[in-house]
């Protein structure tokens, strides 16, 4: 326990250094506005990928509706800030609560489904959420919600991302997390061992959805306008790609996946006509070379890094 | 009278649309039945089929039937090539990696076509005279009749291939249990390739028919029908051929009714809602067999 805490502290110190470096780069305007925005998007995508990983990678429930939860969080948050002038943090929490609640409502009946049936059901629910939003005039309908305060900055994204990473890491390493892993490995065996599979599946789904909601709130406040078309199932595919590319069931992998995907699409932005073709080919090639994703189940923890560095130093 | 009249009219529209979903869904379900892959690129194969048909009619000046045949053959070969290049190397990889590859192939087809044919929608030439038949008080137009005829014909041919030929028997065996089929001397790679060929050819036919029906095609036209066809396949019970047809028809009719009586913005939502309702009560689809999972 103590050892873990110590490692957490080291990781936290590391993160703070990283934050300081990036913050300096941003406030000194060394990064162009385009890359500044992309740094925010990377952070948001990491939250999305790691929360989807909790559902898909750790609990083994194939969900394709993550963009729907993001949409719920985004719209709830912008209603709070733009229409009710609530503080940003309250809006984000409200978005998380709303998305988590919808995740709970959706998860309870649909998680009885298995594999591909669950995949298409969640894809459908995500689309239903989007279409319903599109038909609510109060939030601007298909034209989108205008006049959103520009609240998201790097600090918000970074610290919420950090919180999400620590939360999900600790969840996975807790009793609940073990139950989720057992469900992934073999649902029937897990049930036979006394794991309440429905409870843990719904729990993972709700937590994942809530984090997607926060990410949605952050995403919405990056721009002055949001549109239901930003939350189509293609977007859910994108998050799935990040998770699988990084490695299902690896938090390090999700971070890497989110980073790689965002970076590729940002770097190719100057060749719009080839961008998606190159992206598609890169995706196919990566899956052929490393079907288990960049990291597989592997994690890079500071424990392993430090062990390597310091042991060598001591000997 | 007025209500029933409109109802029947919407049913006719729905069945036309449903036939198209059914043709795409057949490919989905056949491919899924054999290699358990949700081939997300299938909708884009359908788009490529529509474009080949379009160019065969406009550039080569062919009639509808030759254009349809050329499109089906070319797209069938394309499907086999895709399988060979993208999916075959991943035969023993985790299923989700193959799924991501399928999404990659889908992006590739969409944006490569966009590069070559430009993103602007093309107007499909009016190949049929604008005829409409009055059956009692109801109107069936020439395009719809053509859709019915082609769909029924293709389904009869497909049924014959699957039920009566040796290859069909091999397909059924491979979808039942690929490994055992292989032990019995069935070349499963060849069967899988053949399945992709047939599935893609059916999708191409659907693409050309849609072009004729809606008069407009564009490089991203495959995304939504692709997902809908998958919904149709799951609705009927994935891997089951009659299920795909019934699922497609139900989906088409529901969409037409919702678009006609409620609001066209909700038609997609209705399709998904039906799917979820069916799955909640029958988690393996309408025709799906409930297999008890063994430890």
What does this molecule look like?
The complex is a heterodimer of chains A (315) and B (295). Chain A has helices at residues 2-27, 33-58, 66-83, 88-110, 115-134, 154-172, 175-185, 187-192, 197-220, 233-246, 251-267, 272-289, 302-314; strands at 145-146, 225-226. Chain A is mostly helical and 315 residues long. Chain A has a single domain (40-314), classed as ABC transporter involved in vitamin B12 uptake, BtuC (Orthogonal Bundle). Chain A is 75% helix and 1% strand. Chain B has 295 residues and is mostly helical. Chain B has one domain (2-281). Helix content of chain B is 73%, strand content 4%. Chain B has 11 helices and 4 strands. In chain B, strands 1-4 form a two-stranded antiparallel sheet. Chain B has a two-stranded antiparallel ribbon with strand order 2-3. The N and C termini of chain B lie far apart (57 Å). The model of chain B has no long low-confidence stretch (mean pLDDT 89). The chains are: A mainly alpha (315), B mainly alpha (295). Chains A and B meet through α5, α8, α10 and α12 of A and α4, α9 and α11 of B.
Structural class of chain B: mainly alpha
> Largest sheet of chain B at a glance?
2 strands, antiparallel
**Silhouette of chain B:** globular
Order of helices and strands of chain B: HHHHEEEHHHHEHHH
DSSP summary, beta strand count of chain B: 4
Nearest-angstrom radius of gyration of chain B?
19 Å
Q: List SSEs of chain A in N-to-C order.
A: HHHHHEHHHHEHHHH
- Stretches of chain A where pLDDT falls below 50 for ≥5 residues? none
Q: What is the CATH-assigned architecture of chain A? A: Orthogonal Bundle
Q: Residue ranges of chain B: pLDDT <50 for 5 or more in a row?
A: none
Number of structurally distinct domains of chain A: 1
């Amino acid at each position: 326990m103590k050892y873990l805490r110590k490692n957490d502290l080291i990781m936290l110190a590391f993160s703070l250094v990283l934050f300081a470096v990036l913050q300096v780069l941003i406030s000194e305007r060394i990064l162009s506005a385009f890359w500044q925005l992309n740094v925010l998007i990377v952070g948001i995508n990491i939250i999305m990928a790691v929360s989807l990983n909790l559902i898909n990678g750790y609990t083994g429930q194939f969900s394709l509706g993550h963009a729907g939860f993001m949409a719920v969080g985004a719209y709830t948050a912008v209603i709070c800030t733009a229409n009710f002038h609530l503080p940003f943090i309250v809006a984000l929490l409200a978005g998380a609560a709303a998305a988590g609640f919808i995740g709970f409502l959706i998860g309870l009946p649909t998680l009885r489904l298995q594999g591909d049936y669950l995949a298409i059901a969640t894809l459908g629910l995500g689309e239903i959420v989007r279409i319903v939003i599109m038909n609510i005039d109060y939030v601007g309908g298909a034209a989108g919600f205008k006049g959103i305060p520009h609240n998201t900055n790097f600090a918000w994204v970074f610290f919420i991302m950090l919180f999400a990473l620590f939360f999900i890491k600790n969840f996975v390493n807790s009793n609940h997390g073990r139950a989720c892993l057992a469900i992934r490995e073999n649902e029937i065996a897990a049930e036979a061992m006394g794991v309440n599979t429905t409870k843990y599946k719904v729990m993972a789904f709700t937590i994942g959805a809530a984090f997607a909601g926060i990410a949605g709130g952050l995403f919405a406040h990056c721009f002055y306008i949001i549109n239901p078309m930003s939350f189509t199932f293609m977007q859910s595919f994108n998050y799935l790609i990040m998770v699988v590319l990084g490695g299902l069931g690896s938090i390090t992998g999700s971070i890497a996946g989110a980073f790689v995907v965002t970076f590729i699409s940002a770097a190719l932005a100057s060749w719009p006509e080839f961008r998606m073709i190159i992206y598609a080919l890169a995706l196919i090639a990566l899956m052929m070379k490393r079907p288990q994703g960049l990291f597989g189940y592997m994690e890079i923890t500071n424990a392993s890094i430090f062990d390597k560095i310091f042991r060598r130093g001591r000997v | 009278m007025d209500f029933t009249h409109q109802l029947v009219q919407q049913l006719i529209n729905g069945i036309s649309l449903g036939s198209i979903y059914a043709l795409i869904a057949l490919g989905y379900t056949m491919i899924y039945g054999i290699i358990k892959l949700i081939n997300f690129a299938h909708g884009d194969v359908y788009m490529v089929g529509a474009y080949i048909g379009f160019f065969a009619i406009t550039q080569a000046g062919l009639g509808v039937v030759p254009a349809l045949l050329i499109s089906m053959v070319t797209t069938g070969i394309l499907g086999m090539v895709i399988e060979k290049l993208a999916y075959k190397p991943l035969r023993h990889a985790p299923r989700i990696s193959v799924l991501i590859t399928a999404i990659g192939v889908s992006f590739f087809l969409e944006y490569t076509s966009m590069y070559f044919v430009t993103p602007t929608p093309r107007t499909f030439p009016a190949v049929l005279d604008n005829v409409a038949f009055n059956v009692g008080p109801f109107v069936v137009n020439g395009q719809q009749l053509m859709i019915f005829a082609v769909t029924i014909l293709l389904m009869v041919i497909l049924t014959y291939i699957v039920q009566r030929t040796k290859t069909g028997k091999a397909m059924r065996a491979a979808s039942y249990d690929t490994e055992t089929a292989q032990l019995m001397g069935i070349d499963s790679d060849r069967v899988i390739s053949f399945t992709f060929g047939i599935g893609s050819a059916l999708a191409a036919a659907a693409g050309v028919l849609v072009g004729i029906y809606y008069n407009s095609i564009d490089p991203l036209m495959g995304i939504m029908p692709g997902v809908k066809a998958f919904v149709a396949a799951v609705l009927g019970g994935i891997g089951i051929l009659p299920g795909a047809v019934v699922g497609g028809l139900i989906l088409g009719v529901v969409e037409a009714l919702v678009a006609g009586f409620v609001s066209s913005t909700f038609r997609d939502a209705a399709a998904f809602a039906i799917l979820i309702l069916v799955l909640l009560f029958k988690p393996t689809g309408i025709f799906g067999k409930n297999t008890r999972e063994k430890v």
